[in-house]
Queue: 2 jobs
Job 1
Amino acid sequence: MRFRSTRRQAPPVGLSDALAHGLAPDGGLYVPTRWPQLDVRLLRGLALQEAACLVLAPFFAGDRLERELGAIAERAFSFPIPLSPLEDGAVLELFHGPTAAFKDVGARFLAGCLERTGVSRRTVLVATSGDTGSAVAAALEGSQRVDVGILFPIAGVSRAQRHLLSCWRDNVRCFAVRGTFDDCQRLLKTALAGGWGGEGELTTANSINIARLLPQTVYYAVAASRYSEEHGAAPDFLVPTGNLGNATACLWAKRMGLPIGRVVLVTNENRTIADYLATGSWRPRAPTRTLANAMDVGDPSNMQRVLDLYPALPDLLRDVESVVVSDAEIRQTIAAGPARRGRVWDPHTATAVRALERQGGGHRIVVATAHAAKFPDVVEPLIDGAVKVAPALQALLARPARAVEIEPGLDALDHAWRSEAEGR
Ligand SMILES: *Cc1c(COP(=O)(O)O)cnc(C)c1O
């Protein structure tokens, strides 16, 4: 299998090269050159790790990572991803990993790939304002071959998030950047452009990396297989959406022939996607802050991949719809969760639950992207009680946290990186 750029101005590459570079040299995003078709019956009765090998084998074919797929899948899919019933649908719980958000799946899969590509030393730099940084750190802490640097905006994260971005040790360095998330991203781009890489070859791990998206197709494939077997119908998926990575993976699973109905792109008040579907004109804008902050994206980068999959708007509208959910609705949905359904939703999942309640009926699966315990500041006042913390998260919250404050410049990063190394 080869991967080509969405801009089609760069030569196609194999999987290892696509994941090591993240972005194609022409500035486009890598996509598979063809879509293998999967017979859903083959998935029945398979464990998640076995299903991952089946779904992903065609994408690894011919690459130097081909023989490693089993080990990579075993490491990435090491926690349960249950599909649990709701009275009016079902919920796919993606939050049972070490950092309690769906990003654990992609981060652990990418980590497994990076450790096995044969490069002796790598540095992974992540600019993050939330769940990606902690998922990548958890996936690579203790690695002998990959060093990790986390850049997060000092004022742009909640207390709980800051802790989860700063509680890492050994080969993971945490930097609180005196600036915004955009400053962090700019610093990352400067490092990439300038060939900076600590002691190793520099790679990024943001959500445009193909090795994060591919494993996300697996849980959609498995859930669609299980649901269609039980209910005799292809379910719709309601996906809390920011950068459109998770929803793109769902569309890819559908393109591979799996029984998936419509993909509902549920956003917070950042309505770039909704406006595009309504008008056909793509108008990215600056992000607005909302309670579902991991979805505060005004220019979703994976839109390039969606448009590549659906060059014609009418085709896209056949498979996709969008729902916009306000902060007031997020609050109501969280507050009503315990009495109405016996469940505590996090602010991101709450957007999809609200979309389900607004639309009603049919065969619908809510995609639960994070555990409520990651967002106690928002959730606890609304449910008037404490959220039960998942055991894995408890261990992380009990760790000491330490981040080095830096100015948003490459010199500052380089200096702090070196003095961190000496301090070990
Ligand atoms: C990242 C994230 C999202 C948005 O996912 P995208 O792939 O960027 O669309 C939704 N919910 C949570 C909890 C997240 O961390």
Job 2
Amino acid sequence: MHIRFLDLSVTGEEQEKHIEAIRKVLNHGILVNGPEVAEFEGMIAKYCGRKFSVGAGSGSDALYLALRAHDIGHGDEVITSSMSWVATANSVALTGATPVFADINEDLNINTDSMKCLLTKKTRAILPVDYAGKIADFEEITSFAKEHGLVVIEDGSQAFGAEKYGRRTGSFGDISAISLNPMKILNGIGEAGIVLTDDENVRKRLESLRYNGTINRETCIEPGMNSRLDTIQAAVLIHRLKNIDNVISKRRKNASLYNEGLRDIEQIRLPLEQNTEKDTFYTYTIQTKDRDRLSAYLSENNIENKVYHPILQPDQPAYINKSAAFKETAEKCVNSILCLPIHEKLREDEILYVIEKIEKYYRGRDNEG
Ligand SMILES: *Cc1c(COP(=O)(O)O)cnc(C)c1O
């Protein structure tokens, strides 16, 4: 048995459906801003419980556009989480603003007390991440933001389809950005991202910013970028969004197999859910003190496993010692997290095999030496 961490291949009947969607685009020939883009933007806005969405070339671009659309730039500070893929901090830095880093909770999401400690006169926005498929504590974040007049920008890249208090990822910020790259839960067959808002003026601004800051296609009113969602990606994403509930329920089922199988192993902290939330398990991230040895043991047993993301944002050479950072819990967690394979193509017997090996590691003699 060889257990793959990711399997992005598309075969058989599914491949035919993808080709059919692409063929339609090739036939009408509107390769940029074709009808599929608007159709997808409408569909995903509705799915996330938003009025509008604006497609972008990547999740990183979507975050950058969201910040720009709220006039965040030079001289501003944006509070974000120590634990994320560095695209989050980069989107802030590229606007000219300074990212400052809050600590996390053991659930790997932003710690709101730490967030509050970072408030200064320059703070303009909070950029929480829905980490590893779990929505951040937006009740606390939103009320703090309201109190201090801050913009909330949700990075929902790792939690498409997750729910909390009956609302979905992408609905929690004043503006939200989600990556749709091939590794994500809702994924294109290349780079793609989406920005979500309820504000018509913000939508117009985003549409201008994503096409060189132009209005009426020719006149540039502010510097912008070229970051539109390709028609072909939109066509594929329409097809995949129609099927997303199956993908999510498969991931949730895999997670519950792990929860069930691993819950008696006291050396492991599991990614458990509160009863107000439904996570989508972008990764199934366990925490354990002997992470490196367990990881090596699983690899020896042909079980691919990964550490997302091994360098905290404030520890990246690009950011280290450049701005305020709280990271005590983040430092502890980053040395203990391990992501197990959870993708929707895994069979039940494959998950059970992973569980059996982990049990053997802790219960048997396999962890000696
Ligand atoms: C993937 C990811 C991004 C960046 O998205 P891309 O589409 O790869 O540019 C941003 N933030 C988080 C938390 C991510 O996981």
